[in-house]
């Protein structure tokens, strides 16, 4: 283990650094910008105007203040309705001190902001909904706002029926009271609710997606899980992007749609990409010294969140399609170029050893970004001292020492929303939307708007209205006919027209065949995607048509063929798939896509692996599987092998074949999940600390432990307790207050968890391996003499 430098020595070194002048950006900026490095930043509160002076953006760009305290406080997410009114989710009880006091009080809110004179600044506000528990997901649908709060998966719709800016109608649109929410940690819960191009809404953590139909939410299962933590977004072609702060992963899930399975490449971005370049000393980091350079700057993504793809029309064209992700611990916003290489997507920092946006204000906490109706990029700054949840700020922790010494807990109740503009368009006003008041025929014209916000919302509005009077016009757009007074529609208009037809349930084979012959590959890919219902039904005509694309010059089209044909049982579908794979053995993306599909299918059939287990054990393991995929996989990886991208270090140790998951180490696994684990693991030090999950129920912990033991642990010892595989286990026995269950099942019971909880009721700190090994040695001696045969 490397010897740790003291914090004071690091700080002293940082004082020698007078300035940091990184090289010029490489993405078409008109001039170089050279932000100075601040080695000794002050935690003092800065007004919006003062703070903006500390925020550095590329030459030609500038920030404008859209809203700030007292109009808004603690903002975390934003959404515009079709008329351009901005809804802001505000977590008013989030970390109001280092102990998270009062965090679960239902006093948070959603505020509605309006820019009445269209000058870019909000001048009218109202509390649209109050008395909420930390609202985390919002989505505008027609004149409704869909809202999800912390500690529940239920979704409600809110409406303002009398026009006073306050919701007066509340309706439950999705209910699942039986869902086991991880109420112990509000960071390890869902976010997103992004309405994607394919008319499904995607979210993080939960292995599901939603579709809004006739005022309710339909649900679809994502077998291999959705992944992600804070935020989800999509590009012009419906590619989904997640990020995983818990796993220190700034981008994930963007190779294929998660409904088909999970696919990540170790080199989808480089180790260099994961380095961050603050212009401020960064002492307040969870993970401590391993996360700091000698100049006390954060060296690696640790809190990526709030990502978006810039899809607007008011900033320079070279920004369009770039990936934007926030890093509030570093006080920076990353801009990445999205590169397609034979269907495989990779990301590269747009700048060399510097960031798109960076600040030396210690309270600058960017947590979300979005393209606005005006075509500019909007930034949500939670603007506060503490950005980590209470599980990581406990007394005695590295982070708590920094919070207390700097007084970061004093900076609460603030918040800013900025918009990034460019000198070339800053002086002109963009039209203000009125989509909620327009007819479907008028909405059609926006399907070819240069700003993706308008295209998305026009499509969504037509679908929500279910107005099929425009079906003929939509088909005309796909065939290349004009849109209103406009010229021949762009390929993006044709794509949106296809998905609008899909949302209206008005797609037919004829229009799909037309689109399969389109000159633009993304239109062809879209047509293959939407053809899936026909392909699953083994429709001979559609199979014959998509077969013509098996040698398509565009690899995105070939990848989509593999994805869309996988569930078809027709010999023709298998033949197309085989030919694509046989002729492209050297194309990494195609081979990996097929592997991901096979793994996803195996996951669907997971139940067969549990068929011979007792029903209670099987139920616990399946319950734990859902929790693991939505929560634990963010750090440990879906396959239990840990998450390391581009050669970076893992945030958490691998679980696969871990000594702590050996069959006889049942109590060790329970203790780790219940109280957490710190210190080196098998000789390696990890940046993240396994937090305590003791606030969850005994059944919740039993499910998680049962799953990880079953999936990643070792087999039972030969003739354990006289039981061979396939034999019925004998009754359980007792030893030292613990239940000894000599069965071939890896499951543990809630009762066993309860005994561990009772035995360590006074424990408040995490375990170390030395402590666990001592406990295990004593207990295994008992088990091998009373419950099983010695080896």
CATH topology of the largest domain: Neuraminidase
User: Which segments are poorly predicted (pLDDT under 50) over 5 or more consecutive residues?
Assistant: 1-32, 721-743, 784-791
Question: Main beta sheet: strand number and arrangement?
Answer: 6 strands, antiparallel
- Overall tally of domains: 3
Beta strands, count:
27
Residue share in β-strands: 15-25%
* Average pLDDT: 85
Class from helix and strand fractions: alpha+beta
CATH architecture of the largest domain: 6 Propeller
GO molecular function, one term: heme binding
Keywords: Heme, Iron, Metal-binding, Signal
Domain Cytochrome c: 619-712
Signal peptide: 1-25
